[in-house]
Recover the amino acids of this structure.
């Protein structure tokens, strides 16, 4: 029988002709594709090879492929090595530098494949090259950017650390009239920040001819009392005579008179004068056992510290002179007067270094603007804000003297109290990662306040709560509104205040815990500001520990007259 079923037509796969494949290879422009004979001589060339390497076919065919390698690679036999690996393993791959006809370098991805006939005899090599220069440049640019960001982050962290040290020493200087304690504490902090092996303060003798060691840290502590340096001689004497910083990278080649520095092997030194109203009070210097290149930032840091120490020395001496000159009955009154004078003078003298710090941060922000991440830019902005606040708080030290005379003036305006409180909490969260701050209250609360003074009240209460709370301790901030008032509450879970001390904690210079840093002015000033607004502030001791401060102020404040002191001043 005949098979009448329809058969599907059969189709043969198309065959690629050698000429078609050759045309395909020759037309490729993104890859250099060419053949080498077994010795490495070029026997074919395509459009991509001409574009990438720069040679026309008639210029390059017949030449050895080592012409594409940097001279140093060619001399050490790198081309031959690559052919040997391709012969032994069938293929060689790498990325590396290659040379164009015009001598310029490009970053190439290279693939060399050994070609064999049906009897496995080597007949040559196929070489494929791709230009990856743009990718390489992008990767290098990314690495450079990452390195720049790391450098900016390191510099920012160092700036923050030094700012904290300066502010800490400032607080110590303002809060202590014990000169020896101030100098020891300052030298300890300086040594920790600069990572030095020795630090010392030498004060000018009464006749102005000699520097006498007064305080030391590290290697000089054991002999500090016996060191006397003539002004104009040696390292410290030169600083006092010239009234400017001196940096010694290598003590071995310098005129250093202090024997302990040479005996202990100090290698590098940097020192600055202690100046007050243009007068030399002494010298502050630090040193290291290893060779150290102290830079301009180190010198500026020491100068800022020296300004605070010199101010404290001057006013400590004024206090000591007043203390010795008056009878026991008059000493208490005079000490308070001297301290007031000290606060006024210190506030004026501290404005200049704070301004210098602000300029330094602004220059840092400008020089690193493109390298900083948004978070780092916000941190620098916060530093500038904090420096500005410190400058205003220094000015407010003067107000603590005037408060007793009822001279505080308010500038009332409608403001968002919730936003002011929120900003203060966010600032403290950034400054202290050791405490848990929470804020509860409305998103907006409009009231008539002096914004600068009210911010000062909030900052003082937060600072007090953080200072007396353990690491990891919670600080709870609550803001609420009544029909005619708003109430701010700041509660910590720290050491607390004994009930019998609560009535005194708003007194001027009162400190419930003497072992803590501070002036004893924060709560005093806060109370005066609140009462000038016509409000009230009080403290209470919750049963479960800690302290709660409560501020109550009218939404439409009616300030007391500047000539009418609040009741708490009487």
């Amino acid at each position: 029988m005949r098979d009448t079923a329809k058969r599907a037509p059969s189709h043969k796969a198309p065959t690629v002709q050698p000429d078609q494949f050759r045309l395909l290879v020759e037309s490729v422009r993104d890859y250099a594709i060419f053949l080498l004979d077994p010795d490495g001589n070029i026997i074919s060339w395509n459009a991509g090879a001409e574009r990438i390497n720069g040679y026309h076919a008639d210029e390059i065919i017949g030449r050895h492929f080592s012409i594409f390698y940097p001279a140093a690679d060619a001399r050490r036999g790198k081309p031959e090595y690559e052919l040997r690996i391709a012969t032994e393993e069938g293929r060689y791959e790498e990325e590396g530098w290659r040379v164009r006809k015009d001598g310029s370098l490009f970053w190439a991805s290279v693939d060399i494949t050994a070609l064999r006939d049906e009897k496995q005899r080597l007949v040559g090599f196929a070489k494929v090259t791709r230009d990856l220069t743009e990718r390489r440049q992008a990767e290098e640019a990314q690495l450079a950017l990452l390195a720049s960001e790391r450098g900016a982050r390191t510099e920012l962290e160092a700036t923050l650390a030094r700012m904290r040290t300066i502010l800490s020493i400032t607080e110590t200087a303002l809060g202590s009239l014990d000169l020896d304690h101030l100098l020891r504490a300052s030298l300890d902090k300086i040594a920790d920040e600069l990572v030095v092996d020795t630090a010392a303060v030498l004060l000018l003798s009464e006749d102005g001819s000699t520097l006498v060691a007064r305080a030391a840290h590290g290697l000089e502590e054991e002999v500090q009392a016996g060191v006397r340096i003539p002004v104009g001689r040696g390292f410290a004497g030169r600083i006092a005579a010239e009234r400017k910083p001196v940096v010694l990278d290598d003590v071995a080649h310098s005129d250093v008179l202090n024997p302990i520095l040479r005996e202990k092997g100090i290698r590098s030194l940097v020192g600055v004068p202690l100046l007050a109203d243009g007068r030399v009070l002494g010298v502050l210097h630090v040193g290291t056992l290893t060779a150290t290149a102290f830079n301009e930032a180190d010198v500026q840091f020491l100068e800022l510290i020296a300004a605070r120490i010199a101010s404290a020395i001057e006013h400590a001496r004024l206090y000591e002179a007043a203390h010795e000159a008056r009878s026991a009955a008059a000493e208490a009154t005079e000490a308070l007067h001297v301290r007031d004078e000290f606060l006024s003078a210190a506030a004026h003298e501290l404005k200049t270094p704070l301004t210098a710090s602000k300029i330094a941060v602004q220059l840092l922000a400008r020089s690193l603007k493109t390298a900083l991440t948004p978070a780092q830019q916000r941190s620098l902005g916060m530093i500038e804000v904090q420096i500005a606040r410190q400058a205003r708080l220094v000015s407010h030290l003067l107000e603590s003297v005037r408060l007793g005379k009822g001279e505080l003036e308010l500038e009332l305006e409608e403001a968002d109290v919730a936003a002011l409180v929120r900003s203060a909490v966010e600032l403290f969260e950034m400054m202290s990662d050791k405490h848990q701050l929470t804020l509860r209250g409305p998103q907006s609360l409009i009231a008539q306040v002096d914004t600068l003074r009210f911010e000062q009240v909030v900052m003082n209460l937060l600072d007090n709560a953080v200072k007396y709370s353990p690491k990891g301790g919670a600080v709870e901030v609550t803001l609420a509104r009544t029909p005619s008032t708003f109430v701010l509450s700041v509660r910590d879970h720290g050491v607390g205040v004994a009930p019998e001390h609560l009535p005194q904690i708003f007194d001027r210079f009162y400190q419930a815990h003497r072992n803590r840093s501070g002036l004893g002015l924060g709560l005093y000033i806060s109370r005066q500001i609140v009462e000038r607004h016509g409000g009230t502030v009080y403290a209470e001791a919750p049963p479960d520990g800690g302290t709660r401060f409560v501020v109550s102020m009218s939404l439409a404040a009616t300030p007391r007259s500047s000539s009418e002191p609040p009741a708490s001043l009487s």
